[in-house]
Amino acid sequence: MINPSHFDLQSLRVFHLVAEHGSLTKAAEHGGLTLSAVSKRISDLESVTDCILLIRRARGVELTAAGRGLHEHALRVLDQVNSMANEMSDYAIGVRGHVRVWANTSAIVQFLPDDLACFLDANRGVKVSLEERLSGEIVDAVASGKAELGIFADNVPAPGLERRLYRRDKLVLIVAEGHRFAKRDTMAFAETLDEDYVGLNAGSSLLMRMRDAAIAAERPLKLRIQVSSFDGICRMIEAGLGIGVLPEKAVRTESFDSGLHLINLSDAWAHRTLWVGASDAEMLAPEAARLFDFLSRPDGGTDSTPSLGG
User: Residue 306 pLDDT more than 50?
Assistant: First the structure.
């Protein structure tokens, strides 16, 4: 069995350079090392792993299956070490706390920039690391401790998390100017299901909500194109590739100048709640607890009463 203590960070860094550049010579150039030092590091890793990691070719090197596996692990290790170094540097220069927040796209696009700017202005010794993820991933991250706080949609189960109301938002239908629906002010989602849709990628809570509504109407949701961002949806709709559903405040004002039209949806599910959640509020570090309270404050337009469950 391989002894984990036999791996060293510098060898993993060198191996990453070789994998990235496909050449021992280029890895040496970019790493400020001699070619013999790079070759020695690779030989040491092959000895430790008891695997051939590289195949030498006339114009460079190619990773073996074992090499690709080691590279994936090396990237994760190096990323964690970099994160650790950055966090320790923050403490060294006076940062008193670090809060990891995962949030869905709706929260990040509509509300979080102003909220975090306000919080950090009043808490200058706190650092917030924000990651944009799907609501299901956010719930899992908070439950497992990868994130202290998560902001997610109300149609995603969150068993065991303490949830507080963060914001309410409204979903609207977006169509291109000139579309047959463009003169409508309000309509039901079921009326739109003959149309091609532009939607988010699989796993998003918004797409899940639309599919559930289509099932309830006993109609298929005709997804023509799926993209990863709200802006991407708007661009596709502008090009006439379909219609879409987005949070009202996520649609930029300039999008309407470029030919998009907003239509209110009469369906009850178009009015959503975004939750902010923690695994256990009483166990949060002081800076995370302050942010949890801040994001669920009544003056943010929410009811801050905690509730348990999903």
Answer: no
